[in-house]
Amino acid sequence: MANFLKNIFIKNSKLNVDQLIIKKTVISFFFFFVFAGAAFWGWKWLRHQSNSAEGTRKPLRTALNINESIFSKILSDKHLTKEYDRSQAAQRVRVNGKLGLRSNLDTAAWNMYVVKTNGDTIKIKVDDLQRLPKTEVIFNFKCIEGWNQVTYWGGVRFSDFVKAYGLEKESALKYVGLSTPDKEYYVGIDMGSAMHPQTIVCYEMNGQPLPLDQGYPLRLIIPVKYGIKHLKRIGTLFFDNNRPPDYWYERGYDYFSGL
Asked: Could you report the per-residue pLDDT of 3-45, keeping only the tens digit for each?
C-alpha cells in the first residue's frame, strides 16, 4: 500500500493529462472509501450506544448538552436578531404545527395562569397585557422543518411583563416553563432567552389579533430560538431552577434550540 501511494503522488510535472486524471480519480476514490468506512463505523458504534432518559443515544444527548452550555453562556441582550421593515413581512404566515390547538377554545373563560414561586397563581387576560407598553418585532422566523419567513408580531416584552407583575424573584431562576391549556404542548426556556429584549408575550400578528391557528389569544415569540419554542395559546407559565418538561426535547431534539 505504501509503494502504491508513493507512485500515485509523484510530481505532476512528470505526468501527462491522462495520468493526472487517473491520479486524481484514484485519490478521490481512496478518500471516499476512507470517509465512507469511518462514517459507517461511526453509525454502527452509535447504534450500539445506550439511550439517555429522553430516548436519544447518550453521545448525541451529550453533544447537545455541550452545545447548550456553550451558547447559553455567550447569549447576550446586546446581540439582537436582525429585524426587517414592516413591508417585508409575509401576509400569509405559515403555521409551524398545531399541537395544543386541537381542543375547542372558550375565549371568554381563557386565562394565562402564572404560577409564582410561593405557590400563588396570577390570572391574566389579554386586556391586562394590552395595557402595558407594546413592543413589535419583525424577524425571520425559522422552523426546524427547514423553512423560514419574515413575520411581524406585536405584544408585551417578556421582561416588561415580569416587571409589571412583580416577578423579579421568579426571573432570577434558571428557566421558564409554558404549556397550552390542554397540556398537549409544552416547552422549557432558559431565562436568559426569555428575558432577551426581543422576546414578547404576543397577542397580534400583522397588526391584528392572532388567528386561531397562530395561537390566539396569546403566544410566545422568541426570535433567538427555532419555531418549536414559540409556544402557541399559552395556558400556564411557571418558573423553576430545574429544566421544565419540553415536548421536542423528550423526542430527541436540542433543549436550547437557539439560533
From this structure: 554 555 555 555 667 777 787 788 888 888 777 766 666 556 5
